[in-house]
Write a structure and sequence with these properties.
By secondary structure, the protein is an alpha+beta fold. The chain is built from four helices and 30 strands. The strands form six sheets. The chain has a five-stranded antiparallel beta sheet, with no helix packed on it. A hairpin with a 7-residue loop joins β19 and β20. α2 runs antiparallel to α3 and α3 runs antiparallel to α4. The radius of gyration is 31 Å and the shape is globular. It starts with a helix and ends with a helix.
Amino acid sequence: MDPLMLLFLLIAGLTDADSVYTVSRVSAWRGGSVTIPCFYDDIFKTHVKYWCRGRQWSSCPPIVHSDSPQEGKVSIRDDPDQQVFTLTINSLTAGDSGTYFCGVNISGGSDVGDHVSLSVTDGVSTVGLVPVQRGGSVTIPCFYGDRYKTHVKYWCRGRQWSSCPPIVHSDSPQEGNVSIRDDPDQRVFTVTINNLTTGDSGYYWCGVEISGGSDVGDQVHLSVIDGSPWLSVDKQVVRGVEGDSISVQCRYKYDYSQRMLCKIGGSCASDRSVSLDGRPVLIRDDTVNGVFSVTMRGLERKDTGWYWCAAGIWQIPVHITVSQTTPTTTSTERGNNDKLRWEQVLDAALKAGTGVLYLICTIIATELHWSSCRKRGSNQREAEGGANKKQGS
């Protein structure tokens, strides 16, 4: 196996043998709250679950347990039917950043769990590790707090925030193959990079300019790969209509980790889930072809937003747009309505005489068969001829 790939497997810590798994990285805003899902196997439905903090699993003191679900600003909720327990932390501070573990208590044995890295930022957040294919394109969403709606946003490259020269700004939105677009109403700016090369791999930052103060931002790592990336989506933008269904297909290269689809700022769905952020979903994980498919049914406008496919440490953002249903007329109804309308016009023309009828037929020849006009004209001439004969006699 490729040594780099082996490193990724070790970092992800998510294999088919795993019985507890969660997302690898979560970014949240200072002063806000965050909810993190922890999925587990069926055999652990009745076990006590817990949340602990520490870089090492062996030295991770529990903060809260499912049989004692509240401790200060941290709470835990277990849902055995969905085989997931969720951790919520309110009133986040920079001090809450760190490594945590989702744990399941095994009486008389070794507990099982998985780790997640929580990053609390000052009003800007984005995804963590994004793999893309060389020659393709990618769009990265950067979310910010309401107080930054009018500020200039930018995208810079560099491992350290202190030495990250901007590439593009929202007040100068294009630079080579990189563009930026700010949407203050949704409090998100997006950065799109086209024609990616392996040289585009590296660390980047979503930044917000603070006049007279320190800028704020969050980091994302981009990995540009020859051939198929470890995780990809068919489309980064998926569109649907109220009441209908849409599908998001997450393609993974190696069956080394659990897959899930998460709504940014909301919940996640794994292969065992039946809902996502309150929306019914149908999930199919095709491990032979490496496709994790999530179908959302009964769409509502509130389902519009950013989501991300996750597999191990990798994340791919996807935007779902749900349009409002508008009254439509079927083709049959339109045909019947047009036929009735033109018949009314022709009947009126018949009453006005043959000359007017031919004038009307000339005008609407492109919309009605000429034979219809000619037939009505012949009938009209015969009727007029008969009337003239009667008058002559």
